[in-house]
Amino acid sequence: MELVQKPLLRALSGEAVWPPPFWLMRQAGRYLPEYRQLRAQAGDFIALCTSPALAAEVTLQPLRRYGMDGAILFSDILMLPWALGQSLRYAEGEGPLLEPIRDAEAFARLDPSGVANRIAPILETVTRVRSGLDQEAPKAALIGFAGSPFTVACYMVEGRGGGEFAHARRMAYSDPALFGRIIRLLVDSTIEYLLAQAEAGAEALMLFDSWAGLLPPIQFRRWSIDPTAAIVRGIRKVRPDIPLIGFPRLAGPLLPEYAARTGVGTVAMDTGMDPRWAVANVPEGITLQGNMDPQALVSGGDAMEAEARSILAAMRGRPFVFNLGHGIVPPTPPEHVAALARVIRMG
Ligand code: 1CP
């Protein structure tokens, strides 16, 4: 029973493992010199995400330094719209830029029949990382992921990040039929995409709903909770036991309802969530993940240690996975990650 012994999978399955397993959102990336070097060789970001040897190498880089309990596939939530045929590029310093989808004609140009071909190299990366872990880090588990439909739709409609996604949020009110078609297409293709990652070797799956907190409660239920629940049902039909992590960022007081109604076994807390409030209000059988401030990791030292310890103290006895409340930011000094790992390992 190799799987059950991996601490991350035990915690994600509801066991209060202590010291808690950890991994960090965006643990691969620009704060690591070895990433920057490889990125410069790869050319653009999409080329890197679709080059299995390079993407697998980048996925494993942080584990070699810090021995995390989990590796997260190196890819991006926007690779799914790209696989659906939406044009996408990553502009230096600007983040992702897509051809916006604002009407039925633009929506009709998406082509779900192309997805399998376009995601093939990403699945090949999953398989390579999994065998890399078997060789190099047999106790670490591989996390596959996708964006949640609402967050991905935000980028698809807006065409870019960096703002408040006004066009996307307005479309949800003014043309819910079209917005609903985008969401349903994403639900179906995300189920297919995540099941394919599991088939290729992913041992847990995470859904990033980074912009869910922009929605007021009724909209949050309709566009974040319901589509996530549909994805969970679709995955459970085929893989009843694979651990699922949901990250409805900035959900605030709606976090317990998200946890209870989507069916995910683990919810990730964002930076602003009070871990004690989450322990008291998220149903007990659900594992919690999070949520140190990425800026505390930049700062390091005693302030960082105090943050990490207060989260550990709140979580002791609860099924828990230590993580940040959002992704690592590029100015993070790599040695601060090593210091954090030591604090977590002391429990
Ligand atoms: O130039 C570069 O190197 C590109 C920077 C970069 C990286 C390293 C982007 C562009 N994406 C990624 C990798 C990535 N993205 C991972 C890899 C695994 C890991 O965590 O180590 C993951 C899980 C994501 C997920 C992702 N992409 C999210 C959800 C999590 C979050 O941060 O909220 C979102 C919203 C994106 C969109 C995206 N892709 C890239 C950028 C800069 C952005 C954000 C754009 C914005 O500000 O709106």
Automatic annotation (TrEMBL):
Uroporphyrinogen decarboxylase (URO-D) domain residues: 143-159
Cited Pfam families: URO-D
Keywords, ordered alphabetically: Cytoplasm, Decarboxylase, Lyase, Porphyrin biosynthesis
GO molecular function annotations of the record: uroporphyrinogen decarboxylase activity
InterPro entries in UniProt: UROD/MetE-like_sf (IPR038071), Uroporphyrinogen_deCO2ase_HemE (IPR006361), Uroporphyrinogen_deCOase (IPR000257)
Family per similarity comment: Belongs to the uroporphyrinogen decarboxylase family.
Subunit-level organization: Homodimer.
Name of the protein: Uroporphyrinogen decarboxylase
Organism: Teichococcus wenyumeiae
